[in-house]
Amino acid sequence: MSSNNNNLTTSWGAPVGDNQNSMTAGSRGPTLLQDVHLLEKLAHFNRERVPERVVHAKGAGAHGYFEVTQDLSKYTKANFLSEVGRRTPMFIRFSTVAGELGSSDTVRDPRGFAVKFYTEEGNYDLVGNNTPVFFIRDAIKFPDFIHTQKRHPQTHLKNPNAVWDFWSLSPESLHQVTILMSDRGIPATLRHMHGFGSHTFKWVNAEGAAVWVKYHFKTEQGVKNLDVELAAKLAGENPDYHTEDLFNAIDKGDFPAWRLHVQIMPVEDANTYRFDPFDVTKVWSQKDYPLIEVGRMVLDRNPENYFAEVEQATFSPGSFVPGIEASPDKMLQGRLFAYGDAHRHRVGANHNSLPINRPKADVKNYQRDGAMTHGNNGGGSVYYEPNSYGGPAESAQNKPAPFEVSGLADSSAYDHNDHYTQPGDLYRLLSEEERTRLVRNIVGAMAPVERDEIKIRQIGHFYKADPEFGQRIAEGLGLPAPSNP
């Protein structure tokens, strides 16, 4: 029975007679345990926060659409990319990486760039950053890396000793460190930065032919960055500056947009390219593999409720659709497990059934029960497979494309270990003013490190990338440049 009144109720729908005073024995109490409304309010309040994300805790999000502008069906059979003009609803979450839920938006940190496409074939998540590379290239190092970005277990303070000790002992981080310490390390707004899938992925067309692909979202607002002093000022005065800017821009109809481009590499090139194309600490030269436009992403609607949409949104690089598959990228391979597992822990086993995560496509499987089960939990239908009762069955045409594997089962590193050419090239592309700011930022970040051996080891990496680069940082820190790096 429906009612037109506006009575406050408990979670089970019973009307509440008094929401201002708890039930007590007399006016002075004590409070009675039988006040079930009080107990429910307090118990629910204690549980109003799901555990924050271990990384990417602070974020902002928006709804929008993706529109195809160029037919690339010769490369992929993904339905949402199959027709010029096709629009797919999507949701995006931007975030900082290392800080807690209440940290500042304007710190020097990579920005998460996670896009959920609600396609007719299921949700496709592209979970990247605003940088084309990452600090490490093997998922086994990820927990250690993130530990260095978190707080010291005794002082509970950020720990530059751990940060630079890890980076100096992990030379593959040099490319990302150089980007992070450049002007791009602090975007002016979330609207004024590019986004990248970062990893290499595989596209497969209707005939089963495959190519390797990298994603680039190019902002139509132009790239703008924050001055270091202004960023620090904003961190103290308005730590939610980026969140506020994105909401206000969309609210007033100034809808931010990005053009999605891809780089396409023939499968056979992976064996001969001068860098390992699956190493996420490296980029593919756009001279070798030019950008090809795919479509346009527009953000045109703010969330109605931050918790329900932005905080409970879950993304996984393992959420593929037919025509898009994984590559052997070791960081990606680890993320295929880690992200879904984090969501099951943080939000719940049925996180994908929440409205913000629920696909537009019909979900038909044999998963049952668990926390936050929605709907009728499959009712009395068949709950196992294979079965003789006409339940959902596999479709062979949607199997991932086969690929060859070879070699010994061993704990192996990548064969390619040139960690210096690309950051050196990046340094030499910068103007003198940009180089000066880059060096200043690095010197400022390394100055608090207590042990000179860590500083000297890191200077050696900068020197190998470009002697001038290492020399200027050594001078800034008052340390000798390596004579034989």
UniProtKB/TrEMBL annotation:
Its cofactor is: heme
Is Mitochondrion one of the keywords UniProt gives this record?
no
Query: Where's the Catalase core domain?
Result: 9-393
Q: Which family does it belong to?
A: Belongs to the catalase family.
Where is heme bound in this sequence? 339
Which taxonomic lineage does the organism of this UniProt entry have?
A: Bacteria, Bacillati, Bacillota, Bacilli, Bacillales
Sorted alphabetically, which InterPro entries does this protein's record hold?
Catalase (IPR018028), Catalase_3 (IPR040333), Catalase_AS (IPR024708), Catalase_clade1/3 (IPR024711), Catalase_core (IPR011614), Catalase_haem_BS (IPR002226), Catalase_immune_responsive (IPR010582), Catalase_sf (IPR020835)
Report biased composition (Polar residues) as residue ranges.
1-25
The active-site annotation reads 56, 129
Keywords from UniProt, A to Z, are:
Heme, Hydrogen peroxide, Iron, Metal-binding, Oxidoreductase, Peroxidase
Under the heading PROSITE patterns, the entry gives: CATALASE_1, CATALASE_2, CATALASE_3
User: SUPFAM superfamilies in the record, alphabetically?
Assistant: Heme-dependent catalase-like
Q: Which domain of life is it from?
A: Bacteria
Task: Give the reactions, separated by semicolons, that this protein catalyses.
Answer: 2 H2O2 = O2 + 2 H2O
Q: Which GO terms describe its biological process?
A: hydrogen peroxide catabolic process; response to hydrogen peroxide
Organism in which the protein naturally occurs = Paenibacillus albidus
* GO CC terms in record: cytoplasm
EC number(s) of the enzyme?
1.11.1.6
Give the start-end ranges of region Disordered: 1-29
A molecular-function term among this protein's GO annotations? catalase activity
Tell me which Pfam families the record gives: Catalase (PF00199), Catalase-rel (PF06628)
Q: What is the official name of this protein in its record?
A: Catalase
